[in-house]
Write a structure and sequence with these properties.
Elements lengths: L2 H5 L7 E6 L4 E9 L1 H18 L3 E11 L3 H14 L5 E6 L7 H8 L4 E4 L2 H9 L1
Parallel strand pairs: 2-3, 3-4, 4-5
Antiparallel strand pairs: 1-2
InterPro entries: STAS_dom_sf (IPR036513)
Protein name: STAS/SEC14 domain-containing protein
Organism: Ramlibacter henchirensis
């Protein structure tokens, strides 16, 4: 079997793109994600934001299909709060069908100013406020 034939049977690849806007760091992720994937994303965001001096972040997760249990959502929120503790505001944009609020509440409970949105426009407006 050829490599491209093998990839047809795999879940959507988890990919990440980063761009530096004038007011915030924009991170776009796509694909199927497990806890290790999204925690890795958060760690990458932490490193990039710290090195570039970004204090506000938009996580565009509209095209992400998380495969997380309830407990994993709690762990993700806690990990995110600790990893992004230097960030002033974090806006997470999620598909309304995937929104559970578990990770969001967990991150907030651990001190992170994170808010979830289903619209990129609303998220950017909140960051600007």
């Amino acid at each position: 079997m050829k490599a491209h034939e093998l990839s047809r049977n795999l879940p959507a690849m988890f990919t990440v793109g980063i761009t530096h806007g004038t007011a915030h760091l924009l991170v776009v992720a796509t694909g199927t994600a497990r806890l290790c994937d999204v925690c890795g994303l958060v760690d990458l965001v932490s490193t990039v934001a710290r090195m570039c001096g970004d204090r506000k972040v938009v996580l565009d997760l509209l095209a992400v299909r998380p495969e997380l249990s309830f407990t994993e959502h709690l762990r993700l929120g806690e990990h995110t709060a600790h990893a992004l503790s230097d960030i002033e505001k974090v806006a997470a944009v999620v598909d309304p069908r995937e929104y559970r609020a578990i990770s969001e509440r967990s991150a907030q409970k651990h001190g992170l100013n994170l808010k979830a949105f289903t619209s990129l426009v609303e998220a950017e407006a909140w960051l600007a406020s």
